[in-house]
Amino acid sequence: MKPILFILLGLPGSGKSTLSRFLARKYKIPYLRIDTIEHNTHYEKGTNDR
Questions:
Q1: Is the predicted pLDDT of residue 32 greater than 70, yes or no?
Q2: CB neighbours of 11 closer than 8 A, spacing ≥ 6?
Q3: What is the phi/psi pair of residue 47, to 5°?
Q4: pTM of the shown model
């Protein structure tokens, strides 16, 4: 199978997370949220301010 990358953009409450979780289950791919990635990046660098 070819690599798959979905990038979803939209206003708050528009269903991005719901659609992302659905696609992750359907295609058996990881589900990543930018908030989680940003939090871990700041934590690893020792900067907790955003």
A1: yes
A2: none
A3: -115, 110
A4: 0.64
